[in-house]
Design goal:
Length: 337
């Protein structure tokens, strides 16, 4: 079965593409490389030994996107495409709302036209907002803190409403926690532009000497060591969750929200210590003030994913730290050759 991966050259998309090939699916990547690189696709081909069908198209451009549906019998869609920098979304809300919603409109209108009934969406734990009611269960009330988060929230609602009036349609809204790590080959990984916003890419750049020290955003949270607690999961485990979600969507109709996380919370200092132990590299750090919009603790109740998808994260924090560093060490300039 052909699976359209919208934004399939990105961090999570590229890892999912590999797991889809491993599971016998035929991925078709649609990406305009606004925030990714064609080299990632070459690397996927190197890892899988397969030629990957690629369309260099902006997913928001429905007219161009239609070509993909005309030329391929698409059985399922995984929608990863979207801008994801929280801080930028506050400064440029229109950019985020337009891009992150238009892509969904274009994909859904072609689903309607070409009778595609399986749709997996990259949502985020960000939809739980500032709730401190951990672990986060899918039935908790949702609400967001920034335009990026609201685009996830709104896309979920658009997909739920579409499913209500299309009885053959099935959508799985995957709420990711904090994906880190990289494929064990060290050929693909997270490739942020400029100074990283997220913890693990920042730690990796400190380890490589590119950045001097880590700035820990607050040590006065009500957590065991005072630093923020998150549910870090290995990107390869996350990728496997998508394969399970496609299987589920073929068997079940309607819409469902599913958390993808380990259910374990690690603090910033836990991550630093694990990284140092796993890789034998010291990470100098300083404690700074809290970052606006951060909450103390976020981790998943992953029981729905266990039960409905038969999915469970398998890799440990040590695996995540080793694989993240292996990618950074082998690709100090990311995909820039
Ligand atoms: N942190 C630091 N220093 C840094 C970067 C992060 O101390 O340089 C801390 C943060 O304060 C937080 C933890 O490390 O406590 C994790 O921060 P990340 O930026 O890596 O991840 P977030 O949990 O803030 O955000 C992630 C995704 C978002 C998504 C959110 C949903 O990056 O896209 O999870 O929960 F919206």
């Amino acid at each position: 079965m052909k699976v359209l991966l919208a934004g399939g050259a990105g961090y999570i998309g590229s890892h999912t593409c590999i797991e889809l090939v491993n599971a016998g699916f035929e991925p078709v990547i649609v990406d305009d490389f606004a925030n990714s690189s064609p080299i990632a696709v070459k690397r996927i081909e190197e890892i899988t030994g397969r030629k990957i069908r690629l369309y260099t198209i902006d997913v928001c451009n429905e007219e161009e996107l239609e070509k993909v549906f005309k030329e391929n019998e698409i059985g399922s869609i995984v929608h990863f495409a979207g801008y994801k920098a929280v801080g930028e979304s506050v400064k440029l809300p229109l950019k985020y709302y337009r891009n992150n919603l238009d892509s969904t409109f274009a994909l859904l209108s072609l689903c309607e036209k070409y009778d595609v009934n399986s749709f997996i969406f990259s949502s985020s734990a960000t939809v739980y907002g500032m709730s401190e009611d951990v672990p986060y269960h899918e039935d908790l009330p949702t609400g967001c803190l920034n335009p990026y988060g609201w685009t996830k929230y709104m896309n979920e609602q658009i997909l739920r409403d579409y499913a209500k009036v299309h009885p053959s349609f099935s959508t799985v809204l995957l709420r990711y926690f904090n994906p880190i790590g990289a494929h064990e080959s060290g050929l693909i990984g997270d490739n942020p532009e400029g100074i990283p916003n997220n913890l693990m890419p920042y730690v990796c750049q400190v380890a490589s000497g590119k950045l001097e020290k880590l700035h820990i955003f607050g040590n006065d949270y009500p957590t065991p060591d005072g630093t923020g607690v998150r549910d870090y999961l290995h990107v390869v485990d996350l990728a496997k969750g998508h394969v399970k979600a496609i299987d589920y969507s073929i068997e079940n109709k309607g819409s469902i929200e599913i958390n993808l996380g380990t259910g374990i919370g690690y603090s910033v200092l836990d991550v630093v210590n694990s990284f140092e132990k796993a890789n034998g590299i010291k990470i100098p750090y300083v404690i700074d003030g809290r970052r606006p919009g951060d909450n103390a603790t976020s981790y998943a109740d992953p029981s729905r994913a266990n039960k409905l998808l038969g999915w469970k994260a398998e890799k440990t924090i040590v695996d995540m730290c080793k694989d993240a560093w292996n990618w950074q060490k082998n690709n100090p300039r990311g995909y820039k050759e």
